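agent> fetching stored inputs for the zinc ion docking request
agent> found them:
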Amino acid sequence: MVKTTVVGSYPRTGDAFEEQALRRGIARLDRGEITEAELRTVERDTVKAVLKEQNEVGIDLVTDGQISWYDSQSHIAGKLASIEINGLVRYFDTNTYYRQPVVRGAVSRNGPLLVDEWKFAQGSSKAPVKAVLTGPVTLASLSLDKHYGNKKALAGAFASAIGEEVGALVKAGASQIQIDEPILTQHPEDLSLVSEGLDRIRGHKAKATLTLFTFFGDVAGIYKDLQEVPAEILGLDLVQGAATWPVLAKHGSSKPLVLGVIDARNTKEEDPAAVAKKVSQLNSAVDLKASYLSPSNGLEFLPRERARRKLRILHDAARGLGVAG
Amino acid sequence: MTALLTTSVGSLPKPEYLTRARTKAAKGELPSDALQDLEQKATREWIRFQEEIGIDILVDGEQYRGDMATYFAENLEGTEISGLVRSYGNRYYKKPIVVGELKRRGPISVDWFSFAQSQTDRPVKGMITGPYTMMDWSFDEYYGSRTEACLAFAKLLHEEAVALEAAGAKYVQVDEPALSTRFDELPLLVKAVGIVTKGLRARTVLHTCYGNYNEIFDYFNKLPVDQLDLEMSNSGLDLLERFKREPLKKEIAFGVVDVHSHVIEPEALIRERIEKALTIFRPDQLFIDPDCGLKTRSVDEARDKLRNMVAATRAVRQVHGLT
Ligand SMILES: [Zn+2]
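agent> prediction call returned; pasting tokens
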């Protein structure tokens, strides 16, 4: 059986009353009815619930759902020195928005970014919890740079800060680190910057496994070079990035993959048997035993109840691949 | 010559009594006709307010709508409404799901248009959530193709546009906030909006907001509408330079107040913005309005912003001897 994992985010609110605790909590904090500390408790209860949902389905490698993240950019960048957080900007081609980081000076890491969140999540999960960080090149591309004047320098500074964080996460016990670089699907020419960033980060990871994930599109045009990046595992969006599939089937992969085959942006349900059959075509081209099946990107774009069903489909598809393993 | 006509983008804030009533109705504690009475009351109040301050082209204020895409989807065949999906921060909406062939069951917004128009002698705009935005903001379990889903929405929204015109709409506005989502799909958007506006005698308007205008600039003159309604105060004032070099061959409704800020722009600042616009556009080509729908502001903030906008426009008209 092929292993299963998720990409990162998970819906923090559902349609049932008890699934709306965090939404109510934030509203109450805004009205001054509860304290920040009380909201943290609600947040952590939500993380526990999200981990439980993944554990119950039997996902092999889980995440904390990025429940406490306002968005993928400001949650990381906002904790670094010399960065201010500005107004809302559309996040890639989604109907969601991120608060834009503004770089006012030399970027550096003053303290932990995700270590406490990761420790809490791992303490609440039976399955290992993957630590997921937004990649330096995506951060540099989506920020407003008022200091460095070129993306390479800014991405380098972000990479150093993220590298330090990876070191802290590994020290805290994380054995799986994922770096998200969705920017590669829009700007494949950034691949060399991504490689340089990973090279800096790799120096801090010790024995942990490093995954590079790209989503919101394909990487067909850079697939061969992508095989050379300094990461052990490659994560691919094979839904919105379906164009990667033929290249992958043709050239195979020297690295294990995370195969993002379940559509995380549409409620339409896949047939697990059909997914399993398709993936089994890669049997001779990819080391499926060392690989994972996953959604195509974070599950937050779906309603909670639909996200749960997608997890189930993911699990069933992986089980259907039993013959391959 | 008509010059510097004032208008609004669409939504206006709901008064507190209506917000409370909607919550109650959602819990089943208020019958739908009682809710509708209050929606009508709020609509009448907004129409009266717009008349009082002297706006030229009115809107119904969308007091009866929740989300702009969900409202249209709820009134179609072939759709369901999903659970909550997060947009940003603590904001969630229920996203439509296309589950079958899309068809228009009957009028969607026509009755509300007629009601609003019956309250005033001034023109009220008919308002349609555009086909591209409807597609982009829905899950699709049926068509399996963004193009097909978008064109299916376009066909039925054309029927709605024709019905609005038949009901007396002099202006039909197509809202496309998703316009700048994927630049490679702009030709699809042009085609779909063209289907919606085809053959209409009413003045057609396309509203969009919060996009990277530089990327879409080349498409402005290709959009199959008479008027573009653009957010300008929040991010677009630098766009004026580009319009100077590459003139717009359409009317423009020029956003002069920021809808996301609590700050009430003083009349003098709005006058400055209008004067700047007048250095590029002819007075008969230029309409004045807020950046976007005002629904996220409080009733008082929205009123103050609109009041200052109209006062500033009047002052500019006077200075330039425009009537
Ligand atoms: Zn708008």
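agent> quick read of the result: Chain A has one domain: 3-13+57-321.
agent> awaiting further instructions
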